[in-house]
């Protein structure tokens, strides 16, 4: 794994046997332009300086690492939270959206197109578009529009056009389909800003690189706070951008056990979960190869999670490679585990987490009981403002 970030992905966008680009020739021409521009621009002093300024003065980075003392005292272990919920717009998504929008500006693009599930990527991209004076179009499944209504309003307030997606399960996978179709109509003046470390090359690499700031900050902050590295690092995995962001700084540290937490949903029956790395097998979706939950004919399976940002049948190609290399332990948390963590963190620490992030908190709570003498660093990738209407309407305000 020497020179990891210089050698992975390779020049064809492959992470081992995963990744690549399986798209129409017309779109491949535009992807090649984006790739060339990224390799050139991302190394320039001007680009790096502008991005650093944005992160500091607009996003509010660095976000802190927080010791969850009450939770730790009750469960055992020492639980720390990387507070990406305090990043502007309420999640880690702005880290790559500002980078993608800045790249679009340098390329002379006029419009940003994207999909969103939980709405956090949509809000972040709408924010980036407003910042840079670009048009923005967000595709979102009708089921998620209802579940994540506060984020829909935020996107519209920021000036984005929200396109409802009404086919299939009307969730994240269909939103990606719809956004790709819109992008294909005009790839010259628009750019598809993919919301995770998925899609054709160069997006898994670009989003990873923009999200590395989370791990770089967290490692330095944790060492400053404790004098050592964390024993365990935990993050939720849907497409996998927040997880790869924090894992990236610990891949070469064998004393750190890494855990990617997938949604076990209601059960492990097909269509009741989205545990791609746990139950999937290699396949192709949305222009790239990865572990994929699929039916007998190879088509993506229906998926489900209480967390709209995690219900995707594929996963980042880098995560697929890391699973095969056994560099990361991919585990699961159910809807019930997620809800318990959501209520517990709210009551015990005064932090309302996003349902996506609550999956990671749930597994960290389990680890704390199993390993009472070890430290656990959780990427708290988003805040739960977007979820509170859905939670209260469907589950009430529970006692813990």
What is the SS-derived class? alpha/beta
Major beta-sheet overview: 6 strands, mixed
Strand portion, in percent? Answer: 15-25%
Order of helical and strand elements: HEEHHEHEHEHEHHEHEHEHEHEEHEHHEH
Shape: globular
CATH architecture of the largest domain: 3-Layer(aba) Sandwich
Strand order of the largest sheet: 3-4-14-9-10-13
CATH topology of the largest domain: Rossmann fold
CATH class identity of the largest domain: Alpha Beta
State the low-pLDDT regions, or none: none
Radius of gyration: 19 Å
**What kind of assembly state do the chains in view correspond to?**
single chain
Taking the alpha carbons of the first and last residues, their distance comes to: 44 Å
- The average pLDDT is 96
> How many domains make up the 3D coordinates?
2
Helix content: 40-55%
How many H/I helices?
Answer: 16
Number of strands: 14
């Amino acid at each position: 794994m020497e020179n990891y970030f210089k050698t992975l992905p390779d020049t064809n966008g492959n992470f081992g046997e995963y990744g690549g680009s399986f798209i129409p020739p017309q779109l491949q021409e535009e992807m090649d332009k984006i790739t060339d521009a990224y390799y050139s621009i991302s190394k320039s002093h001007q680009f790096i300086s502008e991005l650093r300024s944005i992160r500091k003065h607009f996003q509010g980075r660095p976000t802190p690492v927080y010791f969850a003392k009450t939770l730790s005292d009750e469960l055992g272990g020492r639980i720390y939270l990387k507070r990406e919920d305090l990043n502007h717009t309420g999640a880690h998504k702005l880290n790559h959206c500002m980078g993608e929008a800045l790249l679009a500006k340098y390329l002379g693009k006029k419009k940003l197109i994207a999909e969103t599930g939980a709405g956090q990527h949509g809000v972040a991209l709408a924010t980036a578009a407003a910042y840079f004076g670009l048009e923005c179009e967000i595709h979102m499944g009708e089921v998620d529009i209802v579940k994540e209504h506060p984020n829909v309003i935020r996107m519209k307030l920021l000036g984005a056009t929200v396109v409802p997606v009404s086919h299939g399960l009307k969730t994240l996978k269909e939103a990606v389909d719809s956004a790709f179709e819109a992008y294909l109509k005009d790839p010259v003046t628009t750019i598809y800003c993919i919301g995770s470390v998925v899609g054709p090359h160069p997006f898994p690499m670009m989003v990873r690189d923009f999200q590395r700031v989370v791990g770089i900050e967290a490692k330095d902050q944790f060492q400053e706070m404790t004098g050592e590295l964390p024993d365990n690092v935990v993050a939720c995995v849907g497409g996998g951008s927040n997880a790869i962001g924090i894992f990236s700084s610990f891949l070469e540290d064998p004393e750190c056990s890494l855990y990617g937490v997938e949604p076990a949903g209601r059960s492990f029956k097909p269509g009741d979960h989205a545990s791609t790395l746990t139950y999937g097998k290699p396949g192709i979706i949305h222009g790239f190869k990865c572990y994929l939950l699929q039916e007998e004919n190879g088509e993506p399976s229906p998926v489900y999670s209480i967390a709209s940002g995690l219900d995707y049948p594929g996963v980042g190609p880098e995560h697929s490679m890391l699973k095969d290399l056994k560099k990361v332990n991919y585990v699961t948390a159910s809807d019930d585990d997620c809800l318990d963590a959501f209520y517990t963190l709210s009551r015990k620490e005064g932090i309302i987490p996003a349902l996506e992030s609550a999956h990671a908190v749930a597994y960290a709570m389990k680890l704390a009981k199993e390993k009472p003498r070890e430290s656990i660093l959780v990427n708290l990738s988003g805040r739960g403002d977007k979820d509170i209407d859905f939670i209260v309407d469907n589950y009430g305000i529970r006692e813990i």
